[in-house]
Amino acid sequence: MPHRTCIALLFLLSACVTMDPSPGEPEATSPRLTNLQRAALYPWTDDGQCVVRDASNEWPILAERCFHALDRDRVRFRDVTRRCAVAYAGAAAPAAVALCVFAAPEIVVGAVIVIGAVVVAAAIQEGIDAYQRNASRERAKPKAQTRTAKEPSANQAPKPEGSRSGDIFPPVPTESTPRSPECRPVPVPHAGKDDPHNECADKFPPNRYPGMDVLVGGKRFDALQVGVRVLWEIKTYQFDTYSDFLQEQVIRDQIREFEEERSIARVCGYGFVIGVSTEAHKAALLEVDDSFDIAVTGCER
Question: Which InterPro entries match (predicted)?
């Protein structure tokens, strides 16, 4: 049987075994359960312990933290979309591209291929079973016991952000050992309504938080790259069409902006990459300061 078919079949079987909604009562699948089911498709050298620990996080964060535990001798990565190879152009190691492919928020058909049959890691299966038991108990409670949620009183500590009633493990911080509270990445909605720009920022690096900018050190960045601590600033100007005077002015302003952003990123322990739409824009920036890391995205407005 082809490997892609095996993966799809395993995913369907996992979903059938673990989901047990009561008749006529559809359930919203928890992100934790979704992550456990996705991780069950792959072989792990630690029996799935890392996955269970981080399953309450978004998939890109889980993938980044547990990539070391993946049995990579049995997994092949194919950069089907070519986004990862382009994002790492000039400094890419095969492992970096592989992590980028594995950590993609969406499942891309043919991107991750497992060699041989996969037996679900024991810790992952226990996590799925525990979640199912917990969900069953919640469904079995009489509806009369359901009470309207009340606003917390002034003396009551608010529930930690990211916790869910269905989670049976405590939430895990999204960044380990941040240098300062200001350096912790905070997802915030995209500042502008420039849809082509926002789409480029989400898909090209690719963005760990699709649909969001990220606030670091008091500064908004367009994206935090999946799998690595790299912040991105995306420019979708059609620089080639500008007059010589306007090109010179744009480059002068952008160099000042990029120097400030790179400084903040470095202080907080992040790399910094600039994404521009054209080779001409990249060349003009490097002519003024060749110390910047710049990638050509090809994104159009």
Answer: DUF6310 (IPR046277)
Residue boundaries of the structural domains of the chain: 3-140, 181-296
CA atoms within 13 A on the CB side of 168: 15
Q: Hey, how many other C-beta atoms are within 10 angstroms of the C-beta on 9?
A: 11
Q: Render pLDDT for 178-220 as a digit per residue (tens, 0 to 9).
A: 457 789 999 998 887 788 899 999 888 889 888 899 999 999 9
Question: Measured in Å, how far apart are the chain's first and last C-alpha atoms?
Answer: 44
In this prediction the pTM is 0.50
What digits encode the pLDDT tens for the residues 238-259?
899 888 888 999 999 999 999 9
Taking the C-alpha atoms of residue 70 and residue 252, their distance in angstroms, rounded to an integer, is: 45
Which distant-in-sequence residues (6+ apart) come within 8 Å of 144 by Cβ? none
Peptide linkage before 206 cis (omega within 30 of 0): yes
